[in-house]
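The instructor's notes for this session suggest beginning with a concrete chain rather than abstract definitions. Hand out the sequence below and ask the class to guess, before any prediction is shown, which regions might be ordered.
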Amino acid sequence: MIQMMPHGTAVRRIWCERRRVESTGAPVEARTVGGGGGGVHTVPWVHVVPEQGALPVDLLLPETGRTYVVRLDGREMRDTDAVFLQFYDRLKLPDYFGWNWNALLDCLRDLNRLLPADRYVLIVEAADEVLPGDADTRRLLFRTLLRAGRRWSFTRRSDGLDLSRLVIVMSCAVSSAADLREQLGLCWDETVS
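After discussion, reveal the predicted structure:
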């Protein structure tokens, strides 16, 4: 669950409740999701941030290691080809990229081979403007991002730190934040069912 909480007088921060999500999609305290071996899926790895909002740095960056940050422009993602082009150009996807949703998911799951780093942060600016008028394709994109994040969030950390190795920040207009959160929540429900 994502909440907006006042911080100081002029800044609003998005704080993420540290909860796990079970297969029904309902938030549950301290639940383990996924395969054995003591791994957990950290939810959420997708953060919705209104234009003037902020995220605490510790949600995005580990104390050490290499972090690859890429910014995607939702205003440029008017159709499916433009979505794939943004990811292809910004993530430097290989020439054999298949220009379809399965190929995008495969590349997002294999970022460490394509772009060696310890952690990845994808920032989608104007996320509320992605694929206007095409709700079905927008859901495909969101489910693809959620599935990739779920794959990257599988961790075995002895120190108890539950940072996901892939974090997706969806920046949007303040008036669109609640709707975008709801859309992502519905996509999550579809993804885990």
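Then share the key points. Strands lie at 2-7, 11-16, 20-21, 27-28, 46-50, 53-54, 67-73, 119-125, 166-172. The first helix runs from residue 57 to 60.
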